[in-house]
Amino acid sequence: KKINLAVVGASGMVGRTFLKVLEDRDFPFDNLYCFASKRSAGQKVTCKGKEYTIEELTPESFDRDIDIALFSAGGDTSKTFAPIAASKGVIVVDNSSAWRMDTTVPLVVPEVNPEALADHNNIIANPNCSTIQAVVALKPLYDAYGIKRIVYSTYQAVSGSGVKGYKDLEEGLKGNDLMACYPHPIAGNCLPHIDVFLENGYTKEEMKMVNETRKILNDQSLKITATTVRVPVFYSHSESVNVEFEKDFKDIAEIKTLLANANGVILQDDPENNVYPLAKEATGTDPVYVGRIRRDESLDSGINLWVVADNIRKGAATNAVQIAETLIQNM
Ligand code: 2RA
Fold first, then answer.
1. How high is the ipTM of this complex?
2. Is 237 a residue of the active site?
3. Are 154 and 130 within 8 A, CB to CB?
4. Phi, psi angles (nearest 5°) of residue 56
């Protein structure tokens, strides 16, 4: 069945990457409709060699025959328009955080919990970029050994903040600290402040990792803590992940084999030859790269990992397109 697809937020960084990923993966759409705010309406975008004119998003946008709509237009737009689209039979895959913790909305990483797609009310949530790459690496370990506790420390690219964050770094590196996006200069700095601070002293980004990991792995007993940091890198998030297992494991070779065979993972772990995941190498690709695997000698059974992925592709656009690919298998 040919699919009619909509991209909402088509002019944004993730929106444009949706179009690139749809082309890279030759997604089988028949008609494609591109929507954005009034300000971006009229702009031209291309996909699979064809040019599309961005239309202003209105409630009537979904009156035409659309099967799936990929949203990346901010939480407010998703809160308003996802229910309208869903009520008209459109399946929405939303990249904003608006619906992620809604109990009626599946939060899905296709390599990790595709079964969650079995039951939805036409709104499906794409997890936060920093969560997606982490759970792809954790899933095989969770299944093999059970997980007691996770400690996340992230080193997140400025593209996670969109064009404003990108520009702050670009200009900052030239000595112009605009601070249009961040409260401090990002060039030459590390900011332990992504999104807003909450009552418990964590940031929203840190609690997203805690809450989303539990929902995706379907285990509310998981003990998780996180520190998320913005670093002067343009693309790809890097993460130190410390994992305490329920069961013991034989040796690191066993862990490496598990990860090397895991869905969506590429093992890069040969420190003697300076081989470990790097943000620059991950950028523009879809796998989750894992390395620096070593036993945590302070635990009965635990390891440390270094996990890197392109935050705009696998962390957002590619994961959403993979959800759409999974959905159309049953259409
Ligand atoms: C960030 N993960 O990196 C958040 C949203 N993209 O800013």
1. 0.96
2. yes
3. yes
4. -70, 135
